[in-house]
Amino acid sequence: MQLFIGGACAGKRDAVTARFPDAVWHRLAPGQRLEECQQALVADTPLVITGVLEWLEAALANAENDPLRQQWQGDMTRLCQRAGELKAPLIIIANEVGRGIVPMSPEQRRLRDLNGWFTQDATAQAEQVWYVRHGLVQLIK
């Protein structure tokens, strides 16, 4: 798996499109399990997963942090395994939201926490992590 992370309008999509022009793109739907993305996998074809922040925002009303995190960790492991079996490169695009002003709303602070944990978990499983800022792409793992 590869993770591309950066702020809004930083050039993440352009960087991924340039590297994986034949990729299938899948936007996470609110309430969707991450492992359900396996349905979008095609052998020998990169799969790009987007919409992580909005997906996490939809989860705010649902589970406690720890069970939610355990669920996506397991889902991510199974998704990566299946992508490996199909020789389908897996790419996740995530937003960096931890460098801005800390929001006053508890829900928005929790969203930033969830996003931070998600990107940490994705980084742990990723073979490569790319940071994108101002259209510049830097390999950080």
Question: Rg from C-alpha positions?
Answer: 15 Å
- Unreliable residue stretches: none
What helical percentage do the residues reach? 40-55%
The strand line-up of the biggest sheet is 2-3-4-1-5-6
Beta-strand residue fraction: 15-25%
Number of strands: 6
Structural overview:
This protein is an alpha/beta fold and about 140 residues long. The termini are close together. The longest helix has 21 residues, at about 65-85. The protein has helices at about 10-20, 50-60, 65-85, 105-125, and strands spanning about 1-5, 25, 45-50, 90-95, 130-135, 135-140. The protein has a six-stranded mixed beta sheet, with helices on both faces.
Key descriptive features of the protein:
141 residues; alpha/beta; six-stranded mixed β-sheet; 4 helices; 6 strands; 21% strand
Compact overview of the structure:
With 141 residues, the protein is of the alpha/beta class. It has 4 helices and 6 strands, in the order βαββααβαββ.
SSE inventory with pairings:
Blueprint: E1 2-6, H1 12-19, E2 24-27, E3 47-50, H2 52-59, H3 65-85, E4 90-95, H4 106-125, E5 128-133, E6 136-139
Parallel strand pairs: 1-4, 1-5, 2-3, 3-4
Antiparallel strand pairs: 5-6
Helix pairs in contact: 2-4, 3-4
